[in-house]
Write a structure and sequence with these properties.
Helix content: 40-55%
Number of helices: 9
Number of strands: 9
Shape: elongated
Structural class: alpha+beta
CATH topology of the largest domain: Jelly Rolls
Low-confidence stretches: none
Radius of gyration: 27 Å
CATH class of the largest domain: Mainly Beta
Amino acid sequence: MIPINSFAKELLQSKLEVAGVFRVILPANHTYGDVNIKKAGFLYVVRGESEFVCDGVPYLLKAGDVLHGMKNMHLKYRTGTDSEFDYYLINYSLMDYKYHSSSLLHQSFVLNTGLNPDTLAKLAALHSLSMDPGSMSSLGVYASFFQLLHDTLVDFRLQSERNSRSDMIEESKAFLHAHYMEPLTLTMLADRYSVSNGFFSAQFRKHTGISPIDYLLQFRINRAKEMLVTKKYTVREIAKKVGYTDAYYFSRLFKKYTGVAPSHIIDNGLS
């Protein structure tokens, strides 16, 4: 993940000048390159998909992605087959800026920000301003560009947090699938990610529509059904296999959620 604070600090310390703002629409299924990029810039994808190869490193870009390309890099790209590739390109120059080995301004990378309608409006306004001659317009371009960069970094941070939460839930579901037979609790699940019970439960419900404990219960019931129809195990054995030491409690729970007793399925199947 790009260290946002470090990048923001570099931007503040640099003497950056906007060298051009362009709206580009490329046809689908076309290959371009090898091109030597003379100016650094930010490419904001509005529509479509394309694979960009920057100095040998491939990036698959889609709407909502922002590619930072460094000066003098070699670029090849191929647009997707389904639609045109639509983007804004903002070129910039750095005045009297000395790169250090880890400088992010001297690297290519992608920020996944999501397709924010406010960002699209600001890109269109910046593009319009850049075509209007005069000092006031130049000042407006400078101010609008830095506001756009600020919003871009904020959107990236928020999108990264959303992705991280989604990953947490997917990993939790996989954990439940593998350990459903163990005596799991909400606290145990939340502690795996060092978050509170309330936060974990709210995020889980947001992504799945049910609480983590209800998800576990339903998964156990479904596994129990699979074992019941085989007629290889007693109700007591199946109860233990899905995490319940008390067969009577398991039977009551099973009937509550399915409408029939476990023994009914052993005798009659699922019909």
